[in-house]
Design a protein that fits this description.
The protein is α+β, with helices and mostly antiparallel strands. Helix content is about 35%, strand content about 15%. A 5-stranded mixed beta sheet has the order 2-1-3-4-5, with helices on one face.
Length: about 140
């Protein structure tokens, strides 16, 4: 267990704002334009596996269609206090990637737990305009 993970386990407060997992389900994400993935099952699995620790919310197009399917993990209140910032993950088109995201969020998410190294392959930075639109 990393130092950040131990801190997350010891400092998480009951009632504190949890991580938010934003799942793009717009014009490209979650549609047949991204073949070979059961999009409904992906969203259902995220909701079921994270129900106790995070808010999972589907949203319309996040305007980064070239990265479809996109998931944004926003830190919990404690994670933000610890320096965590939203992490944008693109091309999340297989169950293993979603499972890695789930494990990371369950461990505390941004600011509280180190993400699995494999998620570096999915991380990207959208434009400032797009990031700001999500936070409002």
């Amino acid at each position: 267990m990393s130092k950040q993970s131990r801190r997350a386990a010891s400092t998480t407060k009951v009632g504190a704002a949890p991580c938010t997992v934003t799942v793009c389900r717009g014009c490209c994400c979650g549609t047949p334009k991204v073949p070979g993935l059961d999009h409904a099952a992906q969203l259902t699995d995220l909701r079921q596996s994270l129900a106790a620790v995070a808010t999972v919310r589907p949203v319309g197009c996040l305007d980064v269609c070239e990265q479809a399917n996109v998931i944004v993990v926003q830190p919990s209140a404690e994670g933000r206090k610890a320096g965590g910032r939203p992490v944008w993950l693109g091309l999340v088109n297989d169950p293993d990637a979603a499972a890695d995201i789930t494990a990371w969020v369950k461990a505390g998410g941004p600011g509280l737990a180190d993400p699995p190294d494999i998620l570096d392959l999915y991380t990207f930075s959208p434009s400032r305009r797009i990031r700001q639109e999500l936070e409002h």
